[in-house]
């Protein structure tokens, strides 16, 4: 899984952290949570704020 696999990442975060409020998670923690996901194999440094925001929003959409 790579940084650009937004929907797959969001699905795993929603499953792994069902009690978290995605929009209250700070970007550094979103980054750490993604890096810690099983199957994540991208370069941990190849992200940007836009990617983290997209992940956070997609994760939030799965909580509704």
From TrEMBL:
Highest taxon in the source lineage: Bacteria
Gene3D superfamilies: IscX-like
UniProt xrefs under InterPro entries: ISC_FeS_clus_asmbl_IscsX, IscX-like_sf
SUPFAM superfamilies: IscX-like (SSF140319)
Pfam families documented for this protein: Fe-S_assembly (PF04384)
Entry-linked NCBIfam families: iscX_yfhJ (TIGR03412)
Protein name, per record: Fe-S cluster assembly protein IscX
Gene transcribed to yield this protein: iscX
């Amino acid at each position: 899984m790579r940084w650009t696999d937004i929907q797959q990442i969001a699905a795993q975060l929603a499953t792994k952290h069902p009690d978290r409020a995605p929009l209250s998670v700070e970007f550094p923690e979103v980054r750490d949570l993604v890096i810690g996901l099983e199957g994540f194999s991208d370069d941990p440094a190849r992200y940007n704020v836009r990617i983290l925001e997209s992940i956070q929003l997609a994760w939030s959409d799965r909580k509704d």
